[in-house]
Design brief:
Number of helices: 12
Distance between the termini: 15 Å
Strand content: 15-25%
Helix content: 25-40%
Radius of gyration: 25 Å
Structural class: alpha+beta
Strand order of the largest sheet: 4-10-7-8
Length: 491
């Protein structure tokens, strides 16, 4: 293990060692690997087991869990997106605030892979211990067998809060096993202690968590309403219902023609797909006008930070640093956040990396086209150089721009600019030239903008509700000093 210490310089940690009782080894199924007795996990276990109100095991007769299981391991037959298909999410996608499925299965998979409201999901393979709470939004999807389904007898929000906390996640990860791919099993929940709390405190935490996820659902509904209005004004069908016209349908492969004058300097076929042409033509026919995203009427700036060698530090000594993969989450990386050194990167943070409310972010390297509107609680955080920053010319247009870029048609137009032989990329110049429709109905544009900004406010409120629940758990239940575990060992 390496930790950032003096003046942000990475130094090797001193040798860490401790004694473990034979009883602990027996209770832990005779595991002899040191990771099963991690110092942080032992500290977390001690904190729970010495809780003033006592503790119970999560999945026991007197515990909170009625059942815990994974979906079956079977060959999955994916189908095209359609009215009767269901989005299929992996254990990373299930953490997203408003998941956008890439794979789809038939509705017959729902009884097997579907997840019910108020179920707690835990990632169990690869990345261990990430948790989410099944809300109305997530209950519409199927979820892979790489997530443990935790069905609670009571207080599902309280169970989620504990497993989502630094203490719960640390204990959960201590059960990791596997030589190549890390894993945990549902049976491990039988050995995880959860602190007892008064009924009043449990109910308060439970209410805060359920309210947080209800506000996330409400924000997603507002975004969906805004996109529905956008599609209606532009008279665009859903992307999957666009029927591309090919040059020769009997050729056995997709083929089409394009005029030399329309090549735009690009000779890759994906840039000129017929569905792209259809989208742009339809937008031009039904909008008041179509202008570039870089037009001063829409944006004040579109830029990306310079690449740099990052120096990470401990919490409290640096700025929260977000990568492109996690920006679709309400609280990216949760208790596992990275912190960028102020002393080493202060100038770059202020000039290039700092995030501000209602700034639009687009992932531009590796996984492309993830689009988010920066919520209030990200203010002052830093984002990776692999994010294009779009600063709207005014708040009155920021929500509309996000709605368009985040829609399936906007995403399609972003991705058409993809280039790169090994790692895919897009550049700020591509975003600047992106065609954006100005609607004929000005009030519709204003309503779309208002709906999106209200949704963004709700996401901030949802974050505050969840943080309040975690603070109560840490201070009132676990009695942690300053709501933080001192995980440094004394050896």
């Amino acid at each position: 293990m390496v930790s950032a210490q003096v003046d942000s310089v990475f130094l090797p940690s001193p040798l860490r060692y401790a004694s473990v009782s034979a009883r602990k080894i027996v209770e832990n199924d005779y595991r002899l690997d040191a990771s099963a007795y991690d110092f942080d996990a032992l500290k977390a276990l001690d904190l729970v087991e010495k809780n003033k109100n006592g503790f119970t095991y999560l999945w026991s007769k007197d515990g909170y869990v009625a059942d815990a299981f994974i979906g079956p391991r079977t060959k999955r037959d994916y189908v095209p997106k359609a009215d009767d298909s269901v989005g299929f999410l992996g254990s990373a996608e299930m953490l997203e605030l408003n998941p956008r499925a890439v794979k789809f299965v038939s509705g017959s998979y729902k009884p097997v892979y579907g997840v019910d409201y108020a179920t707690v999901l835990i990632s169990r393979s690869g990345t261990i211990g990430n948790t989410t709470f099944v809300s109305k939004t997530l209950s519409r999807f199927c979820v892979s067998e790489h997530a443990i389904r935790v069905v609670c007898k009571r207080d599902a929000g309280y169970v989620y809060a504990f497993l989502h906390s630094e203490t719960g996640k640390t204990i959960l990860k201590s059960f990791t096993f596997g030589a190549v791919i890390d894993e945990i099993e549902s049976e491990h929940l039988r050995k995880i202690p959860i602190p007892n709390a008064s009924e009043e405190v449990r109910e308060k935490i439970n209410l805060l968590i359920t309210t947080s996820f209800e506000k996330r659902d409400e924000s997603n509904d507002l975004i969906e309403k805004a996109q529905g209005l956008l599609y209606s004004e532009l008279r665009l069908p859903p992307l999957e219902k666009i029927q591309p016209v090919y040059y020769d349908n009997d050729a056995g492969f997709r083929n089409f023609t394009i005029r030399a004058s329309n090549l735009d300097g690009r000779f890759d076929a994906s840039y000129h797909l017929p569905e792209i042409t259809h989208i742009i033509t339809t937008i031009r026919e039904n909008a008041k006008e179509v202008i570039r995203l870089g037009d001063a009427r829409l944006t004040a700036d579109i830029f990306v930070g310079n690449r740099f060698k990052r120096v990470y530090v401990e919490k409290g000594k640096g700025c929260v640093y977000l990568n492109g993969k996690s920006i679709t989450q309400l609280d990216p990386n949760g208790s596992s956040k990275l912190y960028l050194s102020f002393s080493k990167h202060e100038k770059q943070i202020k000039q290039q990396l700092e995030l501000k409310e209602n700034m639009i972010l687009v992932s531009c390297s590796g996984t492309l086209g993830r689009t988010v509107l920066v919520p209030k609680h990200w203010n002052g955080w830093a984002g990776t150089h692999d994010l294009i920053r779009i600063i709207a010319s005014d708040t009155d247009i920021a929500g509309y721009i996000f709605c368009y870029l985040n829609s399936s048609i906007g995403n399609k137009l972003i991705l058409r600019n993809t280039y790169g032989a090994v790692i895919d990329h897009i550049e700020p110049e591509h975003m600047q030239s992106l065609p954006v429709p100005i609607l004929k109905n000005k009030k519709a544009m204003e309503e779309i903008n208002s709906l999106v900004l209200k949704a963004n406010d709700l996401r901030y409120e949802a974050y505050i509700e969840e943080q309040n629940a975690l603070d109560i758990l840490n201070t009132d239940v676990l009695c942690m000093t300053n709501a933080k575990i001192k995980f440094e060992s004394d050896v």
